Amino acid sequence: MNSINSTKYLDLKSLAGIWDLIPTEFGDALALHDPHSTPEVKLTYQELYGKIQLFATGLQSLGIEAGNKVSLFADNSPRWLIADQGIIMAGAVDAVRSSVAEKNELLYILDDSDSVALVVQNLECLQKLRPELDSYPLKTVILLSDEEFEGGLSCPVYNFFSIMDLGVQGSFTPIKGDIDDLATLIYTSGTTGKPKGVMLSHRNLLHQVRNLETIIQPSKGDRILTILPSWHSYERAAEYFLLSRGTTLIYTSIRYFKQDLKDYKPNYMVGVPRLWESIYEGVQKNFRDSGKQKLVNFFLGMSQGYLDGKRAQSGLDLQNLNPSGMDKFVGTLKTIVFYPFHILGDKLVYTKVREGVGNSIKAWISGGGSLAKHIDNFFQIVNIPLLVGYGLTETSPVTNARRMNRNIVGASGQPLPETEIMIAHPETKTPLPQGEKGLVFIRGTQVMQGYYKKPEATAKAINEDGWFDSGDLGWVTPDNDLVITGRAKDTIVLSNGENIEPQPLEDVCLRSAYVDQIMLVGQDQKYLGALIVPNLEALSAWAKENKVSLKIPDTGASREEVENSDLYSKEVMSLFKQELNREVKNRPGYRPDDRIAVFELILEPFSIANGMMTQTLKVKRPVVTNHYQDMIDAMF
Asked: Quick check: keyword Calcium in the entry (predicted)?
């Protein structure tokens, strides 16, 4: 364990206070490493602290005062962290968003947050916001790049070098703040209306710094590969916590990610389900290409039997948390029978999987959405600890997480300290008995102060007793593990009145090698339908093996061209129908209403670029539905 831990942070009144402690403790240790920037950036904790204070001093010299709002529109880099912590150290509040967000969204945040200053990624982002930006009463605009601005705004514009130079020339004034002061505004994605500014205080975020060690216990020098948006609450809380423990954050991106896993051998990673799915799909592709898929599947099946036996022994099977003596006996027999095959599979197959991701993993943390059970099981089989957590932007964000000794597939873990979970009736909002499914309510130190300048929305989200309505559906086990079953507003209600939670069904469909992405539809219809983005690589391999003609149209092909192509041939459609039927029927608790009766294949993946996914790679259901409304209507 580190000599610095949560007890050191108990008396802090501000996030900035962390920097009074960690430079002394970890001064010469490497804090940030950006191997893909030009030039490459490496900063020790002492150097990072110095740059943060210079940035804060520069802001103060430009008239930024405690409590002022500063919009920060930028993306992952050491300079993002310097700007974020510099703004907070100056006593100000940052309103954060990605620089690649739509212009109107950024201008809305700038206006709604009452920002007196603007920090942007680069000149391109600044120019995107003009000419409207000229009318905003800003004290200053700061570029995080070294570019020079020659445009003529009504306020001075500084680049990163010049703001740091102001810091060198100035004198820093420490800010004595209160722990309940506002620290940041994080705007919700706004897929169903205007985004709302989530007000997170220093107390909210310090809760995460103090308590995330109940999930993992990183040590000084541990390597962290960071890929999620730094401004997002999930990645942000993780970075604050990990830096408070003296680890090294290494910046990567989708482009470099798989190579960086091998090159930098990270000990920890914080990610979202889509990230783990991409690793899983890459491993499965290697299995297919090796020609040993059947042998690999044999070992995976044997290892699953071994895992099932262990879970039955220890009461860690979500379907049977209180096993009888006979259940435990059968579980013991299973472990004895399957153990030799599991060990052989580990020697021949699973070690290669671990080597492919650096072979130094202590734990991966998954949040930001539901993790499909086959992905969850796979990483447990190959002995890569994958711990699932739960939370929302409004809860800073983590409220629950699995622990290493209680890693129950299908659950989101027990609450963090100072956190309460209540399950309530979706309509009456009255508490339900343990084990019953309902709306998930949260109360704790990490729950937001409210939505900025939106008292009605705040009152709707947080009741008078302090319970926050998550909008998620779930239930709680006898040992207080939270199990999320869906999103209340995502529920599909069929014309027969049956309620269908789409996420669990989508997760099982993703088990098929031929399904890359899927979104269920069918509101007010007699049966379910689906929009499917096929895995073209796996589909092509299947066609070749089965001597089926498969000429795939370009992504930009018209709908008519796609439907008249080989993609809609009798053979291909039959394959998808069989795959969907098999996976859905194999799901525990299958019922006839779960059947996916109709589907359409689409070539353009859901992505951040086309606005159909959030920054944490969750599908924006309303956006996708609106975009494909004609196609959905035609299905039924």
From this structure: no
Cα distance between residue 380 and residue 365, in whole Å = 13
pLDDT value of residue 165:
98
Average pLDDT over residues 378-388: 98
* Residue written as token pair 């060198």: 168
**CATH number of the structural domain 491-635:** 3.30.300.30
For residue 246, count other CB atoms closer than 10 A to its CB: 22
Q: Please list, residue by residue across 45-67, b when 16 or more beta carbons sit within 10 angstroms of its beta carbon and e when fewer do.
A: bebbbbbbbbbbbbbbbbebeee
- Domains of the chain, by residue range, sit at 6-177, 491-635
Is there a cis peptide before residue 131, judged by omega within 30 degrees of 0? yes
Cα gap 28→46, rounded to integer Å:
6
pLDDT at 190: 53
Amino acid at 109: I
343: its two tokens: 């060990």
pLDDT-derived band at 591 (thresholds 50, 70, 90) equals confident
Report d(CA 463, CA 484) in Å as an integer.
21
Query: Over 70: is that where the pLDDT of 621 sits?
Result: yes
Strand pairing category for 115-120 and 69-73: parallel
CATH topology of domain 6-177: Rossmann fold (3.40.50)
Q: What is the mean pLDDT of the chain?
A: 94
Taken in order 285, 289, 290, 292, is the CA torsion positive or negative?
positive
Q: What tokens appear for 84 in the block? A: 């974020």
Position 3 pLDDT exceeds 50: no
Q: How far apart are CA 126 and CA 370, in angstroms?
A: 36
Question: pLDDT for 185-228, tens place per residue?
Answer: 999 865 456 889 999 999 999 999 999 999 999 999 999 999 99
Unique residue bearing structure tokens 């890359």: 516
Q: Which residues pair with 517 in a beta bridge?
A: 533
Cα gap 328→319, rounded to integer Å: 14
Q: Which residues have CB under 8 Å from 237's CB, separation 6+?
A: 205, 208, 209, 212, 396, 397, 398
Quote the percentage of the chain above a pLDDT of 70: 98
DSSP 113: T
The residues that bridge with 533 in the sheet, in sequence order, are: 517
Mean pLDDT over residues 244-250, rounded?
A: 97
pLDDT at 2 > cutoff 70: no
- Give the residue from 614, 630, 633, 535 showing the smallest Cα distance to 281: 535
Helix pair 373-381, 502-509: axis angle to 10 deg = 50
The DSSP code sequence of 330-387 is HHHHHHHHHHHHHHHHIIIIIHHHHHHTTS--SEEEE-SSPPPHHHHHHHHHTT--EE
pLDDT in tens, 61-90: 999 999 999 999 999 999 999 999 999 999
